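Model it.
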Amino acid sequence: TRLLPSELMQLAGPNAMAMNMLRRMVENQTLALRKHSLEKHGRGPIVVVVDGSGSMAGADESETTPIEAAKALAMVMAYTARQQKRWICLVEFGNADQWRELVLAPEDWDEDQLRDWLEHFFGGGTSFTVLDKVTRAWSRWKCPKGKVDVLFVTDADAKFADNTVKVFSEFRKQN
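Modeled.
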């Protein structure tokens, strides 16, 4: 999580570039930030919502598919949440009936469940009612109060209904 973006971008490049970057990382030769935060309070859960529709499988023969990149981001966010002792809620969605969630508390970490969530892929359609479902699931997740960071990852040009935006905006204000 401390690597500079220019270093991380090399992982998405050709295999030779990615392997060179990994070699430099193992040998402690990469450029990284030193993070220091004075703010210990107000850090609430992280919510990562990932589009698991068929288009995320990628249409071309690129080395990294959109779903692989999205799940990699989710894995980095889970690692960050664990390091910062924060809750993380991982959601994968597809069509209206496809919903898979994993809620991890800092003191109750299950790497097997995380691996299973990361390996899963719906590959179906896309329904953007997922934000409504997140707001309804929030009380069931029983996350602690604090500033909630929400990441929504999709390859689509997402269009949300006005009511969805209104409900989610209210959720943001409350949480």
